[in-house]
Amino acid sequence: MGNPLTTIGFDADDTLWHNERFFALTQVKFAELLADYTDRDSLMDRLLEAERRNIPHYGFGIKGFTLSMIETAIEITQGRVPADVISQILAAGRDMLAHPVELLPDVCETLEALQDTYTLVLVTKGDLLDQERKLAESGLRGMFSAIEIVSDKTPQTYQRIFDSHGDGPARGMMIGNSMKSDVVPMIHAGGHGVYIPYGITWALEHAPAPSDSPRFHQIARLSEVAKLLP
């Protein structure tokens, strides 16, 4: 791997615990609420457009998703969406913010095996309060030397984080389920990016795999990280 690794970053949502499946379930309910106005595929396309527009204003996370659902409902119904539907959309958003944390397989064992040898950093996007809640409920806080809840994940973000908590990106590795957020920008910053596919991936997190980079790695599950390390 060239320079010996000293610092490993981990994404949170859908890398350490389940997240996207709660969005998928809420989208099913959203489609049911607006079934009288449009078909599901058209609704999901409009919702994705709204999310893309709103990220610069609301950021990533459940609150922005909920506001995008309301905006989409208003657009689809040409302003005639019933107040009860708006109320149910808001309730669905609150339910998402209260869902229990369910860890993915091998998480505790993998972090425990690495924490004495490497500096472990949690790097996640999303609503600050929601991410803090999930981290607290996960029981994983004590395994990380640092927690970084960021507005976006760019090469500059990783440069700052791995400079602050390690020996720079060149001696760092970032592990996550998003090619766009966890892998590609870390490689551009000079570090290693490890991709672990999750069953569902938000369309806005898709990106081509940097397969020509020697610092790109793909594994099937978190426990396989050990195979990448000396």
Automatic annotation (TrEMBL):
The keyword DNA damage is assigned to this record:
no
Q: Where is the signal peptide?
A: none
A Pfam family of the record is Hydrolase
State the UniProt keywords alphabetically: Hydrolase
Q: What is this protein called?
A: Hydrolase of the HAD superfamily
Cross-referenced InterPro entries, in alphabetical order?
HAD-like_sf, HAD_sf, PGP-like_dom2, S-2-haloacid_dehalogenase
From which organism does this entry originate? Sulfitobacter litoralis
**Its domain of life?**
Bacteria
Q: Which GO terms describe its molecular function?
A: hydrolase activity
